[in-house]
Structure formats: structure tokens, C-alpha cells
Amino acid sequence: MSQEKLKYLQNKKFCLIFAKEEDNGKVTLRPIYGRADISREGNLSVRGDHGTFAVPASAYSKVLPSDGTELLKDAEFFVICTVSGMDL
Asked: How far apart are CA 10 and CA 25, in angstroms?
């Protein structure tokens, strides 16, 4: 997805979910709630109460509208990013 096409997300309620598979096979999810922000360069980030978190460009095509799942709370859009080597 081109970065130009992300402009519709500007200032929308957004949930960035970090997902990590632990050594025991369990998946840990860490949601970050905030507002989507598109920089002048077209990069997507989420501005929340605890700072601003960049969304990797590789995840742009995976941004989806909220499906009402409890984890998403009142977010209008969300994306799940898998991580490793990061404590959740």
C-alpha cells in the first residue's frame, strides 16, 4: 500500500497491536491506543498517552477497520505487528 493512500487514517482512533510468540508457544499481545498520524513523508505512527509509536512500513497493507473486538476498544482502525527481541 502506498503511503499516499494512508492519509484517510489521519487523526482516526487507532490501535497498534504488538504480538510476540514466547518460547513456550504462547502469544502475548500488547495494544497501544491513540490517534493515527501521517507524517509529511507519509509514515504512519500512533500518538498515544505514552508516546508516539512508528508503524513499520511492512505493516501498512495490513491496516484494517475495527471489527468490534473487545481488545480494540473504540479504535476505528488497527494493525497487528509481530515483534521479537522486545519485552511486552
From this structure: 36
Count Cβ atoms within 10 A of the Cβ of residue 20 and give its class: 0-12 exposed, 13-18 middle, 19 or more buried. Answer: middle
Separation between Cα atoms, residue 1 and residue 17, nearest integer Å: 19
pLDDT digits (tens, 9 = 90+) for 31-47: 999 999 999 999 999 99
Phi (first) and psi of residue 71, to 5 degrees:
-60, -30
Q: Is residue 49 in a domain?
A: yes
Place of cell 502475548: 28
- For residue 44, tell me if it sits in a domain: yes
User: Does 88 reside within a domain?
Assistant: no
Q: How far apart are CA 60 and CA 46, in angstroms?
A: 13
- Side chain identity, residue 67: D
Look up the pTM and report it.
0.90
Is 64 within a domain? yes
